[in-house]
Amino acid sequence: MRKVKLILTVIIVSLLLLLLGSCGEEDAKNMTSQEKATDSEEVEEMVMPEDLGTTKDLNSFATIDIYGNQVDNEVFSDYEYTIIDVWGTYCTPCINAMPDMKKVYDEYKDKGVNVMGIVIDVQNADRSPQMEGIKKARTIVEKQGADFTHILIPKNLLYSFMMDIQFIPTQFIVDSEGNIISNYYEGGKSYEQWCKILDEKLDNKKQAVKLEN
């Protein structure tokens, strides 16, 4: 597990970019020809949407994913729960955890549970998208088959719950309104562990609905 101290705005992003750069040479040695081809592809410049101001948890935000698609807090509204997976492109444990997160996504997406990644090291100091980092994130996601949404960090999330994240990977659960409803699971959880957690939550939800009726 890689320890990452997340501090205020310019410092946090600058340090993360330095860490990314220090790992780049070693990662390049291990890239397959397919990954090198992906890495060499041109990536269209992307722009972050206007910040929405202060927020509690993930209740109100606007950002983009690593493919430039607009994403906001409405992404949670169609699900009872969403697992948030905070990761970095230089973090081997984060990358190794993705197949399990994909299995969770496939198993539970039709049961009211979504998965969303937050990638921490693909932005410049001013929070604009850093295109080389974006390309690397895409390569990792595609290789690992982690085809759920992975977003960049807007300013208001940087100043809210992200200030409490001390390690990556860190995973946690939000409800349909973006409220954080679990502990921060530093180091992440396995597929089996997530099944146990989610089955219990979904069962409790069903029981609560029955009691209300």
Describe it for me?
- The chain is of the alpha/beta class.
- The chain has a single domain (2-212), classed as Glutaredoxin, CATH 3.40.30.10.
- It has six helices and nine strands; from the N terminus they run βααβββαβαβαβββα.
- The chain has helices spanning 9-29, 33-40, 92-108, 131-144, 155-158, 191-212, and strands at 2-3, 62-64, 70-72, 81-87, 113-119, 149-151, 167-168, 170-175, 185-186.
- The strands form three sheets. Strands 6-5-4-8-9 form a five-stranded mixed sheet, covered by helices on one side. A two-stranded antiparallel sheet has the order 1-7. A two-stranded antiparallel ribbon has the order 2-3.
- Helix 4 links the parallel strand 5 (113-119) and strand 6.
- Helix 2 packs antiparallel against helix 4 (131-144) and helix 3 packs parallel to helix 6.
Q: Judging from the principal axes of the Cα atoms, what is the shape?
A: globular
- CATH homologous superfamily label: Glutaredoxin
Q: How many E-type strands?
A: 9
Strand order of the largest sheet: 6-5-4-8-9
Indicate the proportion of strand residues.
15-25%
- Give the uncertain stretches in residue-range form: 3-40
Largest sheet, in brief, is:
5 strands, mixed
Number of helices: 6
Alpha-carbon Rg, integer? 17 Å
Topology:
Layout: E1 2-3, H1 9-29, H2 33-40, E2 62-64, E3 70-72, E4 81-87, H3 92-108, E5 113-119, H4 131-144, E6 149-151, H5 155-158, E7 167-168, E8 170-175, E9 185-186, H6 191-212
Parallel strand pairs: 4-5, 5-6
Antiparallel strand pairs: 1-7, 2-3, 4-8, 8-9
Helix pairs in contact: 2-4, 3-6
